[in-house]
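ingest -> validate -> predict -> emit
validate: passed (alphabet ok, no gaps, 490 aa)
predict: started
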Amino acid sequence: MQSLLALCAVQVTRHQKMACRALSSLPRELYPALFRAAFMYGRTLVLQALVQTWPFPCLSFRQLLPHPKQMGWPKRPRRESVQAVILALLAPAPRRKPQLRVLDMTGFLDASCGQDPTTMSMWARSVAVARTCLSAETQARAAQRLAKRRKLDPQASVTSPVEVHTDLLVNRTSYNVLKEALQTSTSGPLRLRCRDLWAEELSGPSTVALLELLDPVCLRQVDLRFNNLGLSGLCTVIPHMAKFTHLLSLKLQYSNVDVRQLTAEAEGSFQRFVSAIGQLKSLKELNMGSSRLSGRLYQLLSCLQSPLESLELPFCALLPGDLSYLTQSPHATHLKKLDLSGNKLSGDHLGPFQILLREASATLLCLDITECQLMDSHLLNTLPTLCRCTHLRYLGLYGNPVASAGVKTLLEQSRLLSELQLIVYPVPVDCYKDLPWPPSSASLLEGTVDEEKLASVQAELQQLQQAIQRHDVLWTMDIYGHSSFDYFSL
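emit:
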């Protein structure tokens, strides 16, 4: 619910021209409330005036803007609001000396904003910020040339630089403009500082060129997705990350890594890759999604200098020995997030998996075991250990061949998990038509569902949820319709 101050700020910013004229006479303590209202409701004239006359050294989205789920505010900011803040950095300096030194756009706007056409996607924001940095440099040079022609002091037109902290999403289309902006921002009026870097479909040399331009202190996360680098490419890229002293998260999903049958040359590349990972002293999150790591997990993780808190190994063809290593490793007792999706956890894998759950029970917040070939007997056998994870907030079970009876038992037992917020459960196998047995993941994803029977089971689950009074837990079969539990939000 909005406060009285917030309601007043919303009304004031509705009359944009009057609000802009009144800014110079308003106390600076009102600026945060006015910015919040103008940003969330798309009052672009007021926004630009606020940024240009901002009376504090720092303007931080995370500190000023409401949480997306906060009552009384629009769910997402409009595209025009983000554009207005960025363009305000190019406006002529106001009469009074600007106080703004840091514009922090990180954290509030995530990648999922790109799914909403009324907002600005992360890729578009990255390009807009980059172009603004380049335009600011062009303006600064033009001002210096003009001052020189008029025989004025060229430094008189130079204003104090503003650091723009942002998250960047770069692909082959935006690579050149982002690279040029990073090169320019080392000495320009706008200094681009990247906190989280997402790089898609870039070559190894292009990725290295970007990394060399990033501030070694600011970078927190690197996500190299769909780059198909392979072991040789990763050996080229990863050593350049050692300089990032605050790098906490590294994601290398879909990197075309398969260590099951290596040639002598590829074995050397794997050893160099492991050594390079070991040089990342602050690493707390690692994602090796879709890398075939069968039997080699111990080599990869034992080189790390401190325990991981988030480990994502979806579709990594893990063997029972890999899980056994993990149970005995220092990582097990520190894990907050664990993703084993797409790995077999039944049969010989079940015992080590249950031991791993027991070891991680004191810290585990998010567990994703989607498509792990878990049937009712496996789930029921695992429930006592699972219920020891008393801080668990998220459980992903979609794509497992579990019947409605198993889902109901899980729901009943979930009352023991007091911090649980979300469970993504599978379509019960008894709600399919003509399902082959045992069903493959493809059969579960593509099989024909008996909608009438599924509706009946869902109604029973709702009644059971009411009976155990767990209305605070969202039970869903939608694996995409909810926000993910990001490591940095845990």
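The chain has four domains: 4-95, 121-212, 220-306, 326-479.
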